[in-house]
Every structure is written in structure tokens, then in C-alpha cells.
Here is the input.
Amino acid sequence: MPPRRAIHKVTLQLTAGNTPVAELGKMLGQTGVALIEVKRRYDELSAPQRGDVVPAVVTVFDDRSVTLELRTPPTSFLIKRALNAKGSARPGHDPGSTLTREALRAIAVRKLPDLNTADVEAAMRTIAGTARSMGVTVAGQ
Here is the structure.
């Protein structure tokens, strides 16, 4: 049997544990895969993170089989959740909320698997940069 060949690869950012089939249909409908099965597998894999936005890399193969690979939630989502607010309406002009060092470290540790570093301090600097671009100040900087 020849090896499977990937024919379609897409990253979806969906709400964990409660994926609407319509959202999957927009991105995967043309591939001919069973959307209900993809939804069921995504909801099952992302159930522990219910309510979070959890990106998934969906790879469709030429035999219509599918693999799902979950990623960590987007950094901006984690920052907003830690603040219980949005960033500044005008970043760089109007100050937004302040993110504590503890919250910054917690976000960095959670994002570590998807970042290109294994150092928590470097990850914290990356997350702090994202926070600054959102108009959020980081305490102690």
C-alpha cells in the first residue's frame, strides 16, 4: 500500500468542547471528510479546556482520513483571560490594564510547548511583547 499523502492542512481556532459544525464546514467542507467525526474528535480532545479557544491543526489525507493536533490557546486570549478585560482601545496611546509577573509566568509556562524556546524567562519576554502590543502594561518592567 502506498504511503498516505496529505492533501489539505488547515489550522482552526475553535471554542473547545463546543464546536459548531458550520465552522468546520467552512474550512473542511470541500475536502469530503466526515465533519461530524472531526467535530466529535475535536470536542473529545479539547474537553479538558472547555470554554477556551484551542487551535487545532487538521491534516486531511488522500484516503479522506484526518489527524488532529491541538495547540495551546492564543497568547492574546490567555492575556485577556488573566486580566478579565480587553487590552487598550488605542495601544501605545491609552494605557490598558496591568498584567502581574505571576500571571505573565503562568501564561508563559502554558504557552511553552508552542514557543520556539525552552527557557521560561525568554517565553515571558515574548508574552510581555504581545501584552505591550495589546496596550497592556506588565508590572515590574
Summary: The two ends are 58 Å apart (CA to CA).
